[in-house]
């Protein structure tokens, strides 16, 4: 039975601790896999068998109702306003009652006003406390706040009990505003999704859903419209605005044979674009998908905070109980004094600021990076890149070079130029390899009719073969042809800066193509920056040693490995990982189909969506939406800034809590100060997390 991805929205979920409990309980369902609950987006995702879909949804509703009554489980999200006017009205009325209670001189009347204020501002907390108590579910903020305030009421500290609940409610509203701001940033990505495509059928145009477009369909894109799928321009010229996809505000000119990404806006002119992929495989759809699912791969810090909160809260409750009972019994002091101090201890102990702010920092970082054209598949990779990177391993062609090889020579041997080009183009037109694309983009094809190709087979790192008009054709390295019994007796002067592609037909050598590549403009600058961070740099390539060494001779690298097959790249990467075990992580940057295995082997794999194969973007942990290498430096800078924010939030939250706990035990801090400190710590941590979005 095939598994399906289920996504549910938990509307009104505002309790981080409850979210953690829901995720843990849903993950225990026998028919659910890969369960993840993102508190920021309120999205619960999982994989289930199709036959268990309804059962899963009902089970989630039951679990949610048990843990956090009032939260609705929806299949599709519902937009919520930034401010909940009902809650704000309740807080305003509660504050008025509280003020009147403070000003009323008659104690009995004051008590009535305090009671109304308490119930109005704290009704949700109190109801959740009693519902959870019935199910023996304690140790959350509802439990801590209710026990603390009821203790204050028992001690006849009515103004303090009310102020605690009122300030807590105000803090929740402000926290929701901050979180909603973050959610709006993420949800803005959803608005990039394209509503329709102009499909060309013969001489007519029909509006269709972009999901109905298949490879080789022709779509027409008018001025002001967005390209619906990744494809190749077949007709028309225009400037494209790719800022929503790559984060670059600069306009790019495109013409026939240029590649365009879904989501790019046509500024002027009309374009006809041949689809190269389905909509679900487009760069645009992958942006939304990667960012939304990034919370599945949690960082070590997030996992630690989750474990910490599970131990911390029960420990604090036990200490508070001991604090309320033991000193009066041992030192003959009044119970009222130590119950009051225990209440302060409970209020300040709530771990919300940690449980909310740490995941929010990472999620905000993933969102911000996506707006720069950097897609990160999980916060664990931000953690790694913020740490010590021992070595960077780079592929050569299409990664540190432009990948668009210029054709310098076409030399047929014992065959006409026309026949040679016909064989060459017929085969290469079916390949996605950068070399094939370079040949096709530069070879004149006006008078050449393509032949059909059968039994096409690619040999990564070596070449390609197929049957053209009944004849077996091999195209690739000299060694590839020789391994297949082709004798190459034709002699010519070779230059190490050229890449040679050899062609044979029916076992006979029939010519070669000489190509030349060049380094990307920012390679040297990027390598120097990475070296300044203390990392080693290695080049891994399938190219010949002489050619590879010539092109990288002026770069600050620590080593080059050439003439590598895909499996040999993996062995080299594993060897470097072993050597670097104590020096830091190993990062691989590559973009070809043959890079997929090594992308998976390294601690972090980085690929480019513009030039990379679909397999490479699947294997990569981070995908760059354009070919600029300097985005790797930006990625490291942003990752380190995010970790700095996370550490600040942990120190801030725990520092304030432990300080007020200590002061409360000494009798210096009161309930007012405890709730202001708790709410303040939470707000400061959340607002500090949102600094990542402003970077």
UniProtKB/TrEMBL annotation:
Q: What CDD domains does the entry give?
A: HMA (cd00371)
Q: Which residues cross the membrane?
A: 82-103, 109-130, 311-331, 337-363, 645-668
Recorded hits in PROSITE patterns, A to Z, give: ATPASE_E1_E2
Please give the GO cellular component terms listed in this UniProt entry.
plasma membrane
Q: How does it sit in the bilayer?
A: Multi-pass membrane protein
What this protein catalyses is: Cd(2+)(in) + ATP + H2O = Cd(2+)(out) + ADP + phosphate + H(+)
Q: What is its EC number?
A: 7.2.2.21
The record's GO molecular-function terms, alphabetically, read: ATP binding; ATP hydrolysis activity; metal ion binding; P-type cadmium transporter activity
Q: Coiled coil where?
A: none
UniProt KW keywords: ATP-binding, Cadmium, Cell membrane, Membrane, Metal-binding, Nucleotide-binding, Translocase, Transmembrane, Transmembrane helix
Q: What is its main location?
A: membrane
Record domain HMA: where: 9-62
Xref: Gene3D superfamilies: 3.30.70.100, Calcium-transporting ATPase, cytoplasmic domain N, Calcium-transporting ATPase, cytoplasmic transduction domain A, HAD superfamily/HAD-like
- PANTHER family membership: CADMIUM/ZINC-TRANSPORTING ATPASE HMA2-RELATED (PTHR48085), CADMIUM_ZINC-TRANSPORTING ATPASE HMA4-RELATED (PTHR48085:SF5)
Q: Which family does it belong to?
A: Belongs to the cation transport ATPase (P-type) (TC 3.A.3) family. Type IB subfamily.
- UniProt protein name: Cd(2+)-exporting ATPase
């Amino acid at each position: 039975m095939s598994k399906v991805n289920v996504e549910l929205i938990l509307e009104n979920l505002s309790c981080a601790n409850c979210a953690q409990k829901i995720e843990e309980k849903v993950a225990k369902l026998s028919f659910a896999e890969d369960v993840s609950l993102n508190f920021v987006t309120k999205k619960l995702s999982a994989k289930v068998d199709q036959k268990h879909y309804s059962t899963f949804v009902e089970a989630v509703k039951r679990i949610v109702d048990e843990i956090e009554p009032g939260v609705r489980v929806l299949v599709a999200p519902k937009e919520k306003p930034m401010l909940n006017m009902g809650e704000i009205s309740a807080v305003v009325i509660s504050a008025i009652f509280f003020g009147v209670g403070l000003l009323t001189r008659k104690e009995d009347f004051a008590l009535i006003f305090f009671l109304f204020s308490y119930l109005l501002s704290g009704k949700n907390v109190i109801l959740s406390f009693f519902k959870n108590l019935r199910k023996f579910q304690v140790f959350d903020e509802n439990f801590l706040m209710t026990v603390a305030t009821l203790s204050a009421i028992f001690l006849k500290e009515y103004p303090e009990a009310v102020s605690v609940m009122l300030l807590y409610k105000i803090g929740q509203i402000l926290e929701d505003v901050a979180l909603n701001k973050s959610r709006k940033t993420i949800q803005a990505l959803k608005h990039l999704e394209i509503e329709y495509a102009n499909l060309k059928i013969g001489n007519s145009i029909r509006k269709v859903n972009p999901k109905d477009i298949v490879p080789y369909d022709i779509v027409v894109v008018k001025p002001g419209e967005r390209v619906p799928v990744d494809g190749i321009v077949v007709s028309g010229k225009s400037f494209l605005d790719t800022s929503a996809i790559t984060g670059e505000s600069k306009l790019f000119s495109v013409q026939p044979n240029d590649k365009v990404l879904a989501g790019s806006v046509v500024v002027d002119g009309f374009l006809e674009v041949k689809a190269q992929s389905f909509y679900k495989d487009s760069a645009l759809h992958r942006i939304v998908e990667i960012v939304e699912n990034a919370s599945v791969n949690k960082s070590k810090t997030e996992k630690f905070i989750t474990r910490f909160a599970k131990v911390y809260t029960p420990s604090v409750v036990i200490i508070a109980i001991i604090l309320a009972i033991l000193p009066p019994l041992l030192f003959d002091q009044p119970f009222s004094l130590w119950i009051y101090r225990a209440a302060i201890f409970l209020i300040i102990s709530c771990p919300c600021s940690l449980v909310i702010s740490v995941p929010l920092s990472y999620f905000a970082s993933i969102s911000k990076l996506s707006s720069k054209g950097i897609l990160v598949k999980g916060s664990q990779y931000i953690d790694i890149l913020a740490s010590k990177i021992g070595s960077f391993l780079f592929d050569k062609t299409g990664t540190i070079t432009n990948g668009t090889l210029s054709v310098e020579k076409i030399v047929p041997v014992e065959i006409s130029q026309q026949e040679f080009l016909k064989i060459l183009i017929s085969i290469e037109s079916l390949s996605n390899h950068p070399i094939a694309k370079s040949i096709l983009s530069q070879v004149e094809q006006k008078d050449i009719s393509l032949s059909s190709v059968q039994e096409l087979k690619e040999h990564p790192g070596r070449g390609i073969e197929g049957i053209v008009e009944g004849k077996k054709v091999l195209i690739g390295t000299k060694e590839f042809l020789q391994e297949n019994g082709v004798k190459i007796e034709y002699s010519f002067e070779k230059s190490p800066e050229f890449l040679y592609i050899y062609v044979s037909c029916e076992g006979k050598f029939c010519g070669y193509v000489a190509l030349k590549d060049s380094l990307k403009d920012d390679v040297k600058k990027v390598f120097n920056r990475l070296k300044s961070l203390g990392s080693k740099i290695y080049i891994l390539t399938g190219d010949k040693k002489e050619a590879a060494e010539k092109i990288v001779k002026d770069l600050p690298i620590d080593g080059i490995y050439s003439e590598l097959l895909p499996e040999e790249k993996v062995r080299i990467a594993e060897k470097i990982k072993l050597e670097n075990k104590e020096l830091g992580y190993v990062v691989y940057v590559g973009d070809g189909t043959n890079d997929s295995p090594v992308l998976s082997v390294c601690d972090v794999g980085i690929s480019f969506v513009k030039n990379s194969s679909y397999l490479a973007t699947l294997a990569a942990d981070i995908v760059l939406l354009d070919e600029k290498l300097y985005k790797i430096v930006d990625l490291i800078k942003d990752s380190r800034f995010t970790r700095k924010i996370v550490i600040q939030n942990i120190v801030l939250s725990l520092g304030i809590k432990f300080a007020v706990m200590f002061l409360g035990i000494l009798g210096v801090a009161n309930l007012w100060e405890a709730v202001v400190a708790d709410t303040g710590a939470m707000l400061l941590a959340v607002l500090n997390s949102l600094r990542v979005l402003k970077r």
